[in-house]
């Protein structure tokens, strides 16, 4: 589990032509270049600074994410804010390579969801393009995330080890897929039959006598947010218990410097990437599952690189001994990277925790593109073009998918499309439709992303919105089960981080955020076409197969009856766009107001 086995195919990174000078980038926290302290034999300094570069939740976004999905918020010194266009692997490569230039010791790690729910450029090819890009980025190690299991354990093993896809084969004649040069870590994912880890649980990075252990886990609740087929035969263990177990194993191997890569995260009090989440005290400005995890993970772990929630933070959350410990997340889609300095003591072989410093940095698009990434994107785009560029509809303005809004214009469009497509009696007789917010991966942007022209929605853009191609189901639910469904948005598994379902036109209710848990849903406000939902009555409800299986923390939906399977969610969206828009009469963004929010 050292660096060697996974580096046999490592590309030797050539100098990037036209890279920015050091002055062209925002200065990072001190990282990597310094050796300091007292002598320690043969002229070596006692301590060395190791630069840890990290990111998370790339989701196959090789090209710059469009619209709000490709922007980050910066808070200025005077308290005002501004947005910055960010992301794209051509720019991420340039920024990472520039950051490494003056660092004698630099390691690059990630915290899961590198693939899955990807735009068409990667998703169409089962994310082989993203693995290629990550190899070129010189990624050293990553944990798995829940989306690494979207296509099941065998497909994840193929991404790790290489080989052509079992159904689609090889995409380029004479060229086989080589797999990842870096190890995927899955310490808390075991095979039910044997109890053995699915993949490597840890990885030891080594350079000039410096050794740092990485332990990788995904969230224990992965089975709740992945299709049953994707996690079949697997068991997902507790994050804290697993990390603490392998921390002891690493220590017995003499590895005392340890970083945990955790695909679970938190929510900072501000959406600005440069928000100080250590104000007024360490970790006070962040909440969510990662806080409880961080407070329980062994003090022997020196830093936590996290993900899953697509948020940006670099906090100091106290460990079980009360000592502040760095916990970071770099938003999503390659818009940020985190630069952390780990000061390594050669005498103790441990990290000097008081010297750990970390900050998030924007992957701006005002730097030269990495030429090797441009070639990679062009090569795969050529293969995808006949499918990706086909027009499927027209819009008059951006149809947004704001991350922090309970009701989203694009969510309304999608559920309306599902209701219309499944309302006919022979299609299921749906009376309403519901959609999980995590299944909507991007907004629809009016500005052209290629040569298609402004307002044109291409198949590739629609695919980016609905990349899972989940099959639609129409099922029987009682009114009582419907109301319970709404309550499960803000209680149980979803209490800490609510998942507000998107609902079709005619279905309305009030969400009272002044209350807590299930009480946030006002029972008497739940109506269909102006009539109160009758708890005893049966309704026909459209939803994707993931939700129908109880996914995303909605166990009541598994109690459905009389299921009818329809076309995929993507087909529903494309059919609706075709029926309701044209070049001369583009579709306007749907109005909101289905969910009344009381604050």
TrEMBL record:
GO terms for biological process: nucleotide catabolic process. One of its GO terms (cellular component) is outer membrane-bounded periplasmic space. Residues 404-559 form the 5'-Nucleotidase C-terminal domain. Residues 55-311 form the Calcineurin-like phosphoesterase domain. Keywords: Hydrolase, Nucleotide-binding, Signal. It comes from the Bacteria. Belongs to the 5'-nucleotidase family. This is Bifunctional metallophosphatase/5'-nucleotidase. It comes from Streptomyces lunaelactis.
